[in-house]
UniProtKB/TrEMBL annotation:
Species this protein is from: Trieres chinensis
Name of the protein described by the UniProt record: U-box domain-containing protein
GO MF annotations in UniProt: ubiquitin-protein transferase activity
Compositional bias (Basic and acidic residues): 18-30
Start and end residues of each U-box domain: 143-198
SMART domains with a match to the protein in the record: Ubox
């Protein structure tokens, strides 16, 4: 591995220092030994400096990697926050849509209940009307029944008592009671022997017979 600029500078300074020492001491056997010892010491120091430089570079590299890792984590956190914000917005929109649909459903239910109530009231009114009509028709039918035959007359006539009779039946009744004081077969009240052909009543009877 190449040495750092710090180690190189230190090495250059140490070399210069060694050279200065060698020049000041001159030439001689003892001087050579001192120079070699000094060189060895300088090499040892240079090696130590290089080792320290390597450690420094390793720590710097680890620091850069840690900074990059934290930067990536910060970016992931930012993306997660943005996703959560989008999700919250989606949930909010969904909740608003659900509230609107619930309000719409309540309004539709209210309208159906109102329509049902109106229909029920109309049905009740119609039922009462039909009941009244049925009662009226029953009363009218009873009025049209011949008091003698208890049936709808095919040839209706109206007697003096105001009731509708089958023509043959009332005439037969007149024959049976000939010479007697005539009483109404319907009310037992005194009445005359005249009858009136009831063309209109005949039309009503035909209608009732035709309708069953």
């Amino acid at each position: 591995a190449s040495s750092s600029p710090v180690a190189s500078s230190y090495s250059a300074a140490a070399s210069c220092d060694v050279a200065d020492r060698a020049e000041s001491r001159g030439h001689g056997g003892d001087g050579d030994l001192d120079l070699e010892a000094e060189l060895a010491r300088c090499k040892k120091e240079l090696s130590l400096c290089a080792e320290l430089a390597r450690h420094g570079e390793e720590e710097a590299r680890c620091a850069r990697e840690e900074a990059d890792r934290r930067k990536e984590e910060a970016e992931l956190c930012r993306q997660e926050a943005a996703r959560c914000k989008r999700e919250a917005s989606r949930y909010k929109s969904e909740a608003r849509r659900c509230r609107q649909e619930a309000a719409k459903s309540r309004e539709e239910a209210r309208k159906r209940a109102e329509e049902s109530r109106i229909t029920e009231e109309e049905s009740e009114v119609r039922g009462k009307e039909l009941k009244a009509l049925s009662t009226s028709i029953g009363i009218a039918a009873d009025k049209l029944l011949c008091p003698i035959t208890k049936d709808l007359p095919l040839h209706p006539v109206i007697a003096e008592d105001g009731y509708v009779y089958e023509c043959a039946a009332i005439k037969e009744y007149f024959e049976k009671t000939k010479g007697e004081r005539l009483r109404s077969p319907a009310t037992n009240v005194m009445m005359g022997r005249r009858v009136l052909a009831a063309a209109r009543v005949f039309g009503v009877v035909e209608t009732l017979v035709g309708s069953g």
